[in-house]
Specification:
Order of helices and strands: HHEHEHEEHEEEEEEEEEEE
CATH superfamily of the largest domain: Vaccinia Virus protein VP39
Helix content: 10-25%
Shape: elongated
Number of strands: 15
Largest sheet: 8 strands, antiparallel, barrel
CATH class of the largest domain: Alpha Beta
Number of domains: 2
CATH architecture of the largest domain: 3-Layer(aba) Sandwich
Number of helices: 5
C-alpha cells in the first residue's frame, strides 16, 4: 500500500522574519517550565513489551487471496492479529464494507494504520488497538487473519479454540498451525496461505436413529475428535461398524459407516451421513445404503 503525503510550508506572518512577541513569550515560559521539571517533555509511545515479530507487509495479492478464501463479507467482524500497517483490515473495509479491528503491540504501527485508514476513508469501519494479541478478547471475531511465525501460531491455537465460535474462519499467511491441519492451502505467487474453519465439538457418545425402508435403525455412535477430524465406531444389533472419512467443518458433520451385516455376502454396505449440529443434537440425511437416502438424527447419550 502506497500513501502519498504533501508537506506544505507554513505561512509566514508579517513580522519581518521574527517571532511575534506573544509567541516568543509563550516559548520562553514553556522553556522555563521544562528546565525546572514542572512540565515533562513529550515521550513517544513505546511497546508494552518487545514485539514478537518484525513488521513485514503482506503483499496485496496475498491479502486479496486471504479475504477471498475466507469469503469475508460485510456481515463479518475481522480481527487482524499483528496488523502492521493495517492493510488487511483496511482492504476488507474499503472493498467489502467489513468491520475490522487491527491488533498490534507496536505504537508506531498503530499510528501508521490509523493514518492509512483515514487516507482510505474507512475510519468509521475500522479500529486499531495497541495491545498484546495473546491478551485480546477474540469472542466477537468471525474471521481472524495472521502473519506471525509457526511457534506463535501454535501458541495462539488454544486461545482460538477457547474463544472463537464454531464456523469462524482463520487465515494465516505463510505459516501453519502445527498438527492442526489446514482445511485448505493456497499458493499465491509462491507464498502459502493456510485456511481453517473452527470445528464444533462432537466427540463423545451419541444415539443415532436412521429411518430406512419404513423402519428405524438405532446405532450407538462413539466419536473421538482431533481438531476437525473424527474417528470412531458404531454398534447396532451386536455388530460393530467402522467410522471413516469423518470430519467436522464448523457445524457441519460428515462421516461414513461401513456395515458388513447389511450388504451382500462378502461386501460392505457403506452409508454416507451428512448433517449439522444444532443445539446439542445432530440431524441430516444418509445415503448409499440398500434403501437409498434416509433421514437421521442423533442425540448425546445420557450423562454427557
Amino acid at each position: 500500500m502506497t500513501n502519498t503525503f504533501t508537506i506544505r510550508r507554513p505561512r509566514e506572518g508579517r513580522h519581518n522574519g521574527q517571532m511575534p512577541r506573544c509567541r516568543l513569550a509563550r516559548v520562553t515560559v514553556l522553556s522555563a517550565l521544562l528546565a525546572t521539571g514542572v512540565v515533562s517533555p513529550p515521550v513517544a509511545a513505546q511497546p508494552t513489551r518487545t514485539p514478537d515479530v518484525h513488521f513485514v507487509p503482506t503483499p496485496m495479492d496475498v491479502v486479496e487471496a486471504m479475504l477471498a478464501v475466507a469469503r469475508v463479507s460485510k456481515q463479518d467482524r475481522l480481527y487482524d492479529l499483528g496488523s502492521g500497517d493495517g492493510r488487511i483490515v483496511i482492504t476488507a473495509a474499503k472493498r467489502l464494507g467489513t468491520r475490522g479491528i487491527g491488533i498490534d503491540i507496536d505504537p508506531q504501527r498503530i499510528t501508521e494504520s490509523r493514518r492509512n485508514a483515514d487516507t482510505a476513508g474507512v475510519t468509521q469501519l475500522v479500529e486499531f488497538r495497541q495491545a498484546d494479541l495473546f491478551e485480546t478478547d477474540l469472542r466477537q471475531a468471525s474471521v481472524v487473519t495472521l502473519y506471525l511465525l509457526p511457534a506463535l501460531n501454535v501458541k495462539l491455537r488454544p486461545k482460538l479454540f477457547a474463544e472463537l465460535r464454531p464456523g469462524s474462519r482463520v487465515v494465516s499467511h505463510a505459516f501453519h498451525m502445527g498438527d492442526w491441519e489446514a482445511d485448505s492451502t493456497l499458493n499465491v505467487n509462491g507464498r502459502s496461505v493456510f485456511y481453517w474453519v473452527m470445528p464444533s465439538k462432537v466427540d463423545g457418545t451419541w444415539t443415532l436413529r436412521m429411518g430406512s425402508g419404513g423402519s428405524e435403525r438405532t446405532y450407538n455412535l462413539r466419536l473421538a475428535q482431533n481438531y476437525q477430524r473424527l474417528t470412531g465406531t458404531a454398534t447396532a444389533g451386536g455388530h460393530t461398524l467402522s467410522v471413516d472419512s469423518a470430519r467436522v467443518v464448523g457445524d457441519s458433520v460428515i462421516f461414513t459407516l461401513a456395515d458388513t451385516t447389511r450388504g451382500a455376502a462378502g461386501s460392505q454396505e457403506r452409508m454416507r451421513f451428512a448433517g449439522r449440529l444444532n443445539s446439542g443434537a445432530m440431524a441430516g440425511s444418509a445415503s448409499g445404503g440398500a434403501h437409498g437416502s434416509a433421514p437421521w438424527r442423533a442425540s448425546r447419550a445420557t450423562g454427557q
